[in-house]
Amino acid sequence: MLVTKYVVVVGGVVSGVGKGVTTAALGKIIKEHGYTTALIKIDPYINYDAGTLRPTEHGEVWVTDDGGEIDQDLGTYERFMNANFSRRNNITTGQVYKAVIDRERRGEYLGQTVQFIPHILDEIVARVAAVAEDNEVVIIEVGGTVGDYENKPFLFALRALERELGQKNVAYVLVAYLPVPSHIGEMKTKPVQQSIKLLNEEGICPDFIICRSQHAIDDVRREKIEAYSYVPADRIIAAPDVATIYQIPLDLEREQVGTKLLASLGLTSRRTPDWSSWQQMVTTIQKPHKTVRIAVIGKYVQIGDFSLVDSYLSIDQALLHAGVELNSGIKISWIDAQSFEQDPTKLASLEQFDGILVPGGFGTSGVEGKIAAIEYAREHKIPYLGICYGMQLAVVEYARHVARLPDAHTTEVMPECQTPVVAILPLQQQLLASGWYGGTMRLGSYSAHVEPDSVVYRLYSQAGRVAADGTVAERHRHRYEVNPLYVPVLKKHGLIFSGVTQRADGTELAEFIELADHPFFVAAQAHPEFTSRLGNPNPLFQAFVAACLQRVLQRAAAASAQAVPYKPFDYGQIRQATQ
Ligand code: GLN
After folding, report:
1. How many Cβ atoms sit within 10 Å of the Cβ of residue 464?
2. Torsion region of 68: left, alpha or beta (phi above 0 gives left; psi -120 to 50 gives alpha)
3. Which of 54, 169, 232, 282 is most buried as measured by Cβ atoms within 10 A of its Cβ?
4. Distance 526 CA to ligand 1 centre (A)
5. What 8-state DSSP symbol labels residue 33?
6. What is the CA radius of gyration of the chain?
């Protein structure tokens, strides 16, 4: 049996140079060369996981099938690899110390002094080894930058692993940044040299250096780094800025990174990768045939340089993947829901969009603005996709305006509400305590039974995503649920509940809703964006973008004065449109 090989990716000079994307690209490349590959993200922070981190500072929280709440790099890995990783693929300082301290409290160290060496190191190595089990190559991204105090324990532990396994089984990749100071206009190698020195201080010599910069590194500088690091010039890899991150595996393969990395681990490529369909998708991203305009109605918070896209990164990516499949570009307008509360006349501006999306969210701010936007989408027959809070608020909107329950609300916003159509359900507290919800939220993948004649069923079945038992699985991250008490009255007024999950006590929890007589109005309690991959888009996103495209066509036809009668959206066409 093959020994698992390890690739350790560390960052140099500054953070935010695309270490996560590089790791994901390396994983994709090694997989394409025929090896089973898993990726691990090490986050040196003390937090147990990313669940409690503020999305406005750290970007969105990524949720795994098994309910892990993780840094968004894991999302990048899954999107590139078209794989589902476990919470085990993320290791934090908090998890390591908590496991060791819990063991100590249970008396399992039998009176030993519990120390950094060997106990903490052993715990780190054991966690890495647990992921390695079924994989031939494991790529480990060490968060932070070399020289940080926080990542020293991890570098030390990985070096211990190397001593155990031998140099041939571990390769180190330094992803470093080469600045081009504007007043000099010349690429500088000094910071990289210093990063190499810091890495050497940890007893590590890089096997590869990935040179991130504005443009490709030239031979003069390559030689300079070679002389300093003893890394051969052909392992000093150019990684210039790119228009789309999905270009990176192609760029790295142009420098034969796959075969070189495998060779450094004593392996040879098992098959020549065929990058043609990936290349095709990258070309579509860069030069789409058409573009749809989508309004994402969110909670806009301005904190320093924080970018809103970061906290909705997976939505942005899921729309992009769906667009690629339909040869279409996506132009997203991030709209602050509160702007509709301050000035309701602004709602009319939604008419210009081809689709409206209300993403997940928490708390009270902007809620009435989101509800007003959903009402606008419903009444003006603009394609609508609701995600998590976007489904709960669609239920509130429908209850108020169609089912004639004017006081309807979610207890998240109005705890004493008389018509709680979305609420924390009775018994839920006990279930929370008994662990059914895994903490305080319904987290991770849950399977829904879907009505066979629903739009949702048709879409998942066309995508081959209905399980043998007829269920559809998506990942969740929420506390509140649609209140089953109000489901009959909502159904009576035409709201279609297309999928439900049976809770342990028999309660049926709404998972998907949809409307008939609308071009596209679908919402999910889960987060379908977490199962969207480049080349394997999520069916709800794909159908939403397809409906948006149809609106573009109808608009174009109307502009050319050829009146086209309203035609309900034909879901059967999606397959064809994608081929
Ligand atoms: N705030 C809602 C809840 O907790 C929705 C959460 C979400 O959109 N992720 O149930």
Report:
1. 8
2. beta
3. 282
4. 9
5. T
6. 25
Q: Give the residues surrounding ligand 1 with Cβ less than 6 Å away.
A: 360-362, 388-389, 392, 412, 477-480
Please report, for residues 125, 367, 376, 390, the alpha-carbon distance to residue 339 in angstroms, rounded to integers and kept in the order given: 50, 11, 14, 17
CA-CA distance, 323 to 542, in Å (whole number)?
7
Probe residue for ligand 1, chosen from 479, 483, 511 as the CB with the greatest number of ligand atoms within 8 Å: 479
Q: How far is the CA of 391 from the centre of ligand 1 (A)?
A: 9
Long-range pairs of 536-540 with CB within 8 A, sequence gap ≥ 24: 536/82, 536/321, 537/318, 537/321, 537/322, 537/324, 537/325, 538/318, 538/321, 538/322, 538/463, 539/459, 539/460, 539/462, 539/463, 539/465, 540/385, 540/456, 540/459
Q: Catalytic site residues?
A: 388, 527, 529
User: How big is the chain, counted in residues?
Assistant: 579
The model's pLDDT over 287-330, given as tens digits with 9 standing for 90+, comes to 998 999 999 998 865 555 445 666 789 999 999 999 999 999 99
Residue 270 tokens, joined: 């098992």
**What percent of the chain shows pLDDT beyond 90?**
74
Position 535 scores a pLDDT of 94
Residue nearest to atom 1 of ligand 1 (CA): 362
Ligand 1 pocket, mutate which of 69, 388, 437 (most atoms under 8 A from CB): 388
What CA–CA distance (Å, rounded) separates 209 from 55? Answer: 31
Instruction: Please provide the average confidence, as pLDDT, over all residues in the chain.
Output: 91
Give the pLDDT band (50/70/90) at residue 506: confident
Percent helix, strand, coil in the chain, to 5, is: 45, 20, 35
60 Cα–ligand 1 center, Å:
13
Testing ligand 1's pocket by substitution, the residue of 297, 299, 371, 477 carrying the most ligand atoms inside 8 A of its CB is 477
Query: pLDDT digit string (tens) for 174-207?
Result: 999 998 888 888 888 888 899 999 999 999 999 9
* Cα–Cα distance measured from residue 7 to residue 263, given in angstroms and rounded to the nearest whole number: 12
Q: Cα(571)–Cα(542) distance, rounded to whole angstroms?
A: 11
Residue nearest to atom 9 of ligand 1 (CA): 360
pLDDT tens sequence across 222-256: 998 898 888 999 999 999 999 999 999 999 999 99
Ligand 1 centroid – CA 361 distance (Å): 5
* Residue ID of nearest Cα to ligand 1 atom 7: 360
Q: What is the mean pLDDT of residues 355-380?
A: 95
Ligand 1: residue whose CA is nearest its atom 8: 360
Comparing 442 with 246, the larger pLDDT belongs to: 246
> Cα(196)–Cα(177) distance, rounded to whole angstroms?
12
Mean pLDDT of 263-278: 96
39 C-alpha vs ligand 1 centroid, how far in Å? 29
Adjacent-strand bridge partners of 171: 7
Query: Which residue's structure tokens are 């942005």?
Result: 316
Per-residue model confidence (pLDDT) at position 438: 46
- Measured CA to CA in angstroms, residue 366 lies from 346, 363, 404 at distances of 14, 9, 23
Domains and CATH numbers, the chain: 5-279 (3.40.50.300), 288-423+481-559 (3.40.50.880)
